[in-house]
Amino acid sequence: MRKGLLFVLLALLAIVALLTSACGADKEKGQDTAAENKDVNKTYTLSLNCPYPPPVHEWESKYIAHEKFAERVKEATQGRVNIKIYYNGQLAPTGQALDALKRGVIDMESATSYWGGTVPESDFIWLPFWSKGHEHAIHVMRDTKIGQIFEKAYRKQGAKLLFYWPVSIEGLITRQPVSKYEDIKGMKLRMGSSMWPTWYKNMGVTPINIAPSEQYEALMRGTIDGTIYVLYAIDTYKLHEVCDYLTLPGFIDPFLCYVLVNAEVWNSLPEDIQKTIEEIARETEQEAIKGSMRLTDSILDMCDKHDVEVIKLNKEEFNKFKDSAMPLWDEFAARSETCAEMVEILKEDLKQWETNNPESKNWEERWLSQPS
């Protein structure tokens, strides 16, 4: 009798234990599901600071890299990620933008390499005559170790590089004509990069530090006589109102900008959102390349439309500009072992690229004046 009662009690205890365990599991499962639902429903608003004025044309690379990118991210994530764009450096001025990104004051920065003192490797893209067109530039940054070094340098600063957006040719826009090398001597030019002083000294030029968005006023007031900047600015920045001359060939073809995101912010995003944004970033980069190429093809028409005189250097004069700039390659290489490695890789890559793409050997000749 007692044995039978004991057996019944033990059976009842076992059933209670099973029910308690099941309820606990259901509760935990419910908590996990709730957490997952909460994560899925969470929205993220990211601030993107850009030092440049808003884009003018919907087909230009700046529009694609900002407006279209933000629109696509919002759509693809079903509104979970909203990117708010602030042009003209509204959230952080150029010199302070990288620090602001590192500290989380801004979530994203879209610009070019303005922080060579902090990230020496980033000044690579300021080397005059380093690329032979869009295809070659993206090849260097995506297919060679140069790009890996470049991105790693930013990772050390707590930033992830999302994508590049080229901005056509960087060249000379001036108030007075420059048809030969000697013409530039004595001019005051905006200095785009902290690594250009040696080049400016070689040319006999006075460097003036001015933010991109302040160039128009500086040219209007005569604070500077010209700028080495993206040539399409003659149109979209309305520099045609304060400059009458544009000199070809350009010095960097194309010039590269890129979008950075704070690493902590990036890591806080769910994996599925990261994957979606990376896919959109790759698509945006390719479309931005097309927009940049269209800008290049439009340069002469832009100048004609705004009565800006296009001066084409002859080969001899162009080579003088080129020779004056090449010491910067050695100066950049002397900064660090990684910078030296980037230059060596570039030199070897240029040889291989020209062998495989013979038309690139004399890339700039399409813009040179032809002997009569």
List the topology elements.
Layout: H1 2-41, E1 44-49, H2 61-76, E2 81-86, H3 97-103, E3 108-111, H4 134-143, H5 145-155, E4 159-166, E5 170-174, E6 188-190, H6 197-203, E7 206-208, H7 215-221, E8 226-230, H8 233-236, E9 245-252, E10 256-262, H9 263-268, H10 271-305, E11 309-312, H11 315-325, H12 327-333, H13 337-356
Parallel strand pairs: 1-2, 1-3, 6-7, 6-8, 9-11
Antiparallel strand pairs: 3-10, 4-10, 5-8, 5-9
Description:
Helix 6 links the parallel strand 6 and strand 7 (206-208). The longest helix is centred in the N-terminal third of the chain and has 40 residues, at 2-41. 49% of the residues lie in helices and 16% in strands. Strands 7-6-8-5-9-11 form a 6-stranded mixed beta sheet. It has 372 residues and is of the alpha/beta class.
Give a quick precis of the structure.
This protein is of the alpha/beta class and 372 residues long.
User: Which range does the strand content fall in?
Assistant: 15-25%
Low-pLDDT stretches: none
Radius of gyration (Å): 28 Å
State the total count of DSSP E strands: 11
Descriptors:
about 375 residues; alpha/beta; 6-stranded mixed sheet; 5-stranded mixed sheet; 13 helices; 11 strands
